[in-house]
Fold this sequence. Notes:
The structure holds 2 protein chains of 2 kinds.
Chain A: H1 11-23, E1 26-27, H2 28-38, H3 50-59, E2 63-69, E3 75-81, H4 83-107
Antiparallel strand pairs in A: 1-3, 2-3
Helix pairs in contact in A: 1-2, 1-4
Chain B: H1 3-12, H2 16-40, H3 45-56, H4 59-70, H5 73-91, H6 93-122, H7 150-159, E1 169-176, E2 183-190, H8 194-198, H9 225-230
Antiparallel strand pairs in B: 1-2
Helix pairs in contact in B: 2-3, 2-4
Amino acid sequence: MGEGKDVRQGTLALMVLKTLESMGSLHGYGIARRIEQTSGDLLSVNYGTLYPALLKLEQEGYIASEWGVSENNRRARYYRLTRAGKKQVERETREWNETAAIVARFLNPEESR
Amino acid sequence: MSLRSFLSRVASLFRSQRRDREIEAELESHVQLHIDDFLRSGMSLAEARRQAIIKLGGIEQTREAWRRQRGLPAIESLVQDVRYAVRAMRKNPGFACIALLTLMLGIGANTALFSVVNGVLLNPLPYPHSEQLAILYQKSTLADRGAVSYPNFLDWQRQNETFLSMAAFREQSFNLTGEGEPTRLSGHEVSADFFPTLDVKPVLGRLFTADEDRVGGEPVALIGGGLWKAR
């Protein structure tokens, strides 16, 4: 999340879910840093926008959270995927790939033939 | 919004204070973790804190955005408005009384007027000249609107100079037998001039005659179209 592109609504949710899927349990700051690193510092988002997104995912039952202690002994709220969350990752990944494939056909009509 | 997240947001209306304290602590912990990282890269504490808050996008702004997601802002502001109104009224009971009285009179007058307009203009009884129809009662020590005895009714009818016509009726239930399932019917016993008074004519057959309207007269009945079709 350096000086790059904005993240679209909904995309952030998928990034959070995917991050939690690969990292297990993680606090908000950790998720933000991880998304930033994974994107190769191409994304620019205030870390703060993550918290409403996390709350929304929690309300929908895709993630759960509890207080824990970080590596450097700081209290932090840790998030993890629920079973519904794992299904949601699969569903959203599939939908995202389909959308991307369709858009790609329009952008590169030659190659897709 | 899914049902699940809607319920979660409704529930949050009732335990908002605890959750608010939690986001407070969570954001503080976020800033702290970020500061730790900045310190490791050799930044001064004051600068690290400043940068961490900038990167977060402001603590107050984040908390606001979080709150909008947490509950139902429309309902929360409604609750706040109601609380404010109650406080203001308590502070100024005289004004509150006058306001309440004004509302009561206003609503009462409107309701009364509407009932009249609704009955007379919008939904009049389905008879010709229904505005001339009235029900008469007999006042006694027992009831203001009591039933009229039949001899009294006959006296009224004879001495009547006010109404074009007078008729008597009484609610009554009847048994219908001899044709399919026996049925209990609700209806009325009426005097012969009941239908002429209402100016109603039957679709089939005839109305009651004066000869039938006396003790020992033939028992006759007039039935509605619904019962006629059903049987």
